[in-house]
Design a protein that fits this description.
about 400 residues
Length: about 400
């Protein structure tokens, strides 16, 4: 089998980024072989570096979103530092920024300005609510956008709405920024021109709300909050087992219900009973449906219940913890873990979800310390050592 290069080998990305949305996008570009130069403030860098110290002294968000990048610490408020970044951008293929609304434009680092100066450049503006409208200048932290997008209203139990346990708005925007860059690179390959790309957290998460949004707009009401259950499918929930675990199962059609009734519940009569035979009936009588399933699984251990469900061809899962995920047998069997370097030594990290069997392994580069690559990157730019020393002495670079 021939070995092809990674798809983004030879592509250079410069990013003035912080927190999660933009760093998540550019980390995935690095996973595909791009060189990603991360611009950080000399006085602390990306503020996500300070979120926690859970990853052996490093911040877990930062470790997740920044492997494989080069860190260059430059003060953009100093004209000399801003000039250095502009020179880096002039030689880049892609520029990504998620500064506070209006900050990039004041620095001349917004997508429109940069693309006018560099027609081959792809420049991405990631914002909370987009460049215009009444919300343009509102702070857009992930939890706030989850609320504005209605995600919290459909997540949780009937009594208590909850936010997602992961930064869903940030991740959504990061994914669309990542996809936007790839699409723009394809277009540049055919037209020779780059261009601006806009992504907002609200737009991204609103798209992900498609099912409840269309259900509510066209059906009159949004789906009810049902915890682990499903608003319009039954059985579809978590059920306790004899060893204190929870087993989840989902029956998607009436054929599966028949198999569940006959092979798992030992109640073949429920396959014919009009109160259970159709999904509509099972949803209408959800309490009785769940009681029948729970009664059959309660005497079994989780392993026994899962084995019986698997044998019957019923979709099922164990309710795992984060610790269980870290030791998941499927990830281990498929060798989805690698060690990456960091300022505190090797750290376990997942292989990127997108893999290329006919290409080299993902680079899985180190998590950089603040300013680890300042001298190398600016030296490549032609900044002489004596100028670097002077800039460092003035606090313009670190």
């Amino acid at each position: 089998m021939s070995t092809q290069p990674l798809p983004l080998a030879g592509i250079t990305v410069v990013a003035v980024e912080q927190a999660v949305a933009a760093p998540f996008a550019t980390r995935q570009l690095a996973d595909l072989g791009a060189r990603v130069i991360k611009i950080e403030r000399p006085d602390g860098g990306d503020f996500a570096r300070g979120y926690d110290t859970a990853a052996r002294g490093l911040a877990s968000h930062f470790v997740w979103c920044n492997r494989g990048k080069e860190s260059v610490a430059v003060d953009l408020k100093d004209g000399r530092g801003l000039d250095l970044v502009r020179r880096l951008v002039a030689g880049a293929d892609v520029f990504v920024q998620n500064l506070a609304q209006g900050a990039a434009a004041r620095l001349g680092l917004d997508a429109a300005t940069l693309c006018a100066a560099h027609p081959q450049l792809i420049a991405v503006d990631v914002s909370g609510y987009g460049p215009g409208g009444p919300y343009a200048h509102k702070r857009a932290y992930d939890m706030l956008v989850q609320c504005e997008a209605g995600l919290v209203s459909v997540t949780g139990t009937a009594e208590q709405p909850v936010k997602s346990g992961i930064p869903a708005a940030d991740i959504a925007a990061g994914m669309y920024a990542y996809a936007g860059v790839l699409a723009a690179l394809v277009r540049r390959g055919t037209t020779g021109r780059g261009g601006p790309v806009e992504v907002s957290l609200l737009d991204s998460l609103a798209e992900w709300m498609g099912h409840p949004l269309h259900h509510g707009m066209h059906g009159g009401t949004a789906p009810a909050r049902t915890g682990l259950a499903h608003a319009v499918i039954a059985p579809y929930d978590a059920y306790p087992t004899a060893d204190g675990s929870l087993v989840l199962l989902s029956v998607q059609n009436d054929r599966e219900w028949r198999r569940l009734a006959e092979q798992v519940l030992d109640r073949p009569d429920l396959a014919e009973d009009p109160a259970f035979a159709t999904n509509t009936a099972r949803v209408a009588g959800r309490a009785a449906t769940d009681a029948a399933v729970a009664g059959a699984l309660a005497p079994l251990t989780a392993a026994e219940a899962l084995a019986r469900l698997d044998a019957a061809g019923i979709a099922c899962a164990r309710l795992n913890t984060v610790a269980d995920l870290a030791e998941h047998p499927q990830l281990a069997a498929r060798e989805r873990w690698r060690e990456v370097g960091s300022p505190v030594g090797p750290l376990r990290s997942l292989v990127p979800p997108v893999t290329f069997p006919d290409g080299p392994d993902a680079p899985m580069g180190r998590v950089p310390g603040l300013g680890d690559d300042t001298d190398v990157v600016l030296g490549e730019l032609g900044v002489p050592p004596e100028e670097l020393r002077a800039l460092r002495a003035d606090g313009v670079v670190a």
